[in-house]
Design goal:
By secondary structure, the protein is an alpha+beta fold. The protein has eight helices and 15 strands. Strands 7, 8, 9, 10, 11, 12, 13, 14 and 15 form a nine-stranded mixed beta sheet that branches.
């Protein structure tokens, strides 16, 4: 039986119940995180909790737990699963209240957590690369908040799902933002390019790992506005996320990127990422539960 966490308790998933008046259900009024877990050790948990705290602060939802309490609850959930590598999803909503757009004065936040097997792209997909489609980025202007209100992302991701593609790459006013569920990197003449973090882009933890690996291994890296024309004319395009890790996009809207194969800079980054995963992610130690 798959165990989940709800408001302080571990229980079987089919016994977890949330009120239909929860503002997460009514308004999508909540925020979330997803933490990759390797060999039962959460990766960069403090960074994920810092991003959660920021999202809660920006939405003015009370954080119900200290970091030590978050870690303790998450560890219990991880230990209750039968699989070692996990994607732990958790969300906090503003809580249960009568339906009114204004914030309720006394609602208690609802906290839900679940864990699923962490599935990364198969070796054949990494070797061959993936296709993507593009679309105008028509989401709201606070994409830096990890909100559970994801209908915009869902509709955009569905475009690529229906096209048999791995992602939907987004452009706003002629400039690259991100993908429907990933950050995006572009390579031109050996230089890795990516848009700087703004309110239009979710600050990705995997994105940060890629940046750190590039800098540590002297791979040229530049943060700048990247035009749609630069993306379509790039030598390489990658997407990054906790589940995708780093994945090459070799076709966009039916046209080849570069020579239509994962490029040398991607291959170097993928190698560095896998080495980092083995040496750091799988060799990690749990952070102390004490405050």
């Amino acid at each position: 039986m798959n165990m989940v966490f709800l408001n302080g308790k571990l229980l079987p998933a089919d016994q977890a119940q949330v009120s239909v008046l929860d503002r997460g259900f009514i308004f999508g009024d909540g925020v979330y995180e997803l933490v990759p877990v390797y060999s039962r050790v959460p990766f960069r948990l403090d960074e994920h909790l810092a991003r959660l705290e920021r999202s809660l602060g920006e939405t003015r939802i009370r954080n119900p737990y200290s970091r030590a309490e978050w870690r303790a609850h998450l560890y219990k959930l991880v230990d209750a699963q039968p699989f070692d590598d996990q994607g732990v999803y958790f969300q906090v909503t503003r809580g249960v209240a009568k339906r009114d757009h204004a914030f309720p004065k006394s609602a208690e936040p609802t906290v839900f957590m679940m864990a699923n097997p962490l599935v990364n792209p198969p070796a054949a997909q990494v070797e061959k690369g993936s296709a993507a489609v593009s679309a105008p980025d028509n989401r709201w202007l606070r994409c830096d908040i990890k909100s559970i209100s994801l209908i915009g992302n869902v509709l955009l991701r569905q475009l690529s799902a229906e096209a048999g593609a791995a992602e939907t790459i987004l452009f706003r006013n002629g400039k690259l933002t991100e993908a429907s569920a990933s950050n995006v990197f572009v390579v031109k003449n050996g230089v890795i390019l990516s848009p700087p973090k703004t309110n239009l882009i979710l600050p990705g933890i995997t994105y940060d790992v890629v940046v750190e690996l590039a800098r540590a291994n002297n791979l040229p890296l530049e943060f700048k506005d990247v035009s749609e024309a630069e993306v379509r004319g790039a030598d390489e395009v990658w997407v990054s996320s906790s589940s995708k890790e780093v994945l090459a996009i070799v076709e966009l809207d039916g046209k080849r990127i570069g020579d239509g194969r994962p490029g040398p800079v991607f291959r170097r980054m993928h190698q560095l990422y896998q080495e980092f995963k083995q040496k750091v992610m799988r060799a990690g130690k749990r952070e102390a539960v004490s405050a």
